Amino acid sequence: MRASQNDDTIVWYENLLILNNPEKQLNTIKIHPNPADTALFIKSGDSDTLAQMNVTSILGNNIWHSKTFQHKIDIENWASSIYFLEIKNNTGQKKVFKIVKK
Question: Locate the Secretion system C-terminal sorting domain: which residues (predicted)?
């Protein structure tokens, strides 16, 4: 709690502990190897909450899509380039990773 000396205003701050924070879950995702030539491996502490994955090219074209979380993406037949992997959780939050195909 804080009181203002200028205008008699009292401001109340409350810190809430959120045990199952979806944004924190997205921050635990690890992708390796990057750059890669044959496959990407995705590791997450809580993959049950991850709902959708999408890969687009640097030009914005859809390359790959899955409605469920996948621990491995086969990229062997993809052209050497930069791609963007978007992972969404079941609350709609998303995180985008830049991946490089050798």
Answer: 31-95
